[in-house]
Amino acid sequence: MDPKTYPSHPAEQATLVTRVAYGQWHALEDDLVVGRGHVQHRPEGRLFVSVDAWHDTAFAQLAEAMTAALPAPLHTVVDEADTELTARWRRAGFTVLRREVEYAVPTDPEVTGLRAVVPPPGVTVVPAGQADEGMLREVDRVVRAEVEATVGWRSMPAEVVPRTEGDTIVDPALYAVAATPDAYLGLIRVVRVKRPRIGLLAVRAGERRRGVGRALLAHALGVLHRAGTAEAWAEVDKSNAVASALFRGVGARPVGCTMELVR
């Protein structure tokens, strides 16, 4: 890709912002790179941007060039404790969409207290990769609609968003489900990339407060423990008291808080 240069504003030193490759921008002063901008396309279609710059002017001009070149909405994630970076993004027109607590979740049932947890009567847990795909997609559509009608998907983990119509499952092999002979009542998704992450835990509205979610969590953590994994990770919206209580109740410890901002 040919570089494309964006105009900059006067400053103590002239700052030249250039698009150097697809999804990459550089801020230059006297041929020295003083800032870099990147864009990431998430699998579900959202665009996430990041900027690493030496000073406010370079940051502002990189953010301006990127927002001018990319389609809205644009997202970014910052550590809640990083007030300086948050202020830079706010000045670039970004607002807070959600706050999320990251938990480290132990898998040892002696630590979690989940060894004796079993599903409610008449309910079984179908392990990941063994669920009926049609029934899995149906329960996923139902819980998505229920959440959207109440707290909305903004209360769910950041990577969980509605996909194209009729395609709500990322990978059927990642999901374990709570099942009766006639229907699926809930589901849990664990993704293993760099570290196991609980990306989704949801139960149908009429089946909550029966221990279905706790049984799904016990199953997923037990599988990880038997595979030799000591900890899993999960993100919970800061406003979701029920989910926070569930994870804290099994010994999960908060390890950070992030904010997702959007423009």
From TrEMBL:
Pfam families: Acetyltransf_1. PROSITE patterns: GNAT. Residues 134-263 form the N-acetyltransferase domain. The keyword Acyltransferase applies. Keywords: Acyltransferase, Transferase. Its EC number is 2.3.1.-. SUPFAM superfamilies: Acyl-CoA N-acyltransferases (Nat) (SSF55729). This is GNAT family N-acetyltransferase. It comes from Streptomyces nigra.
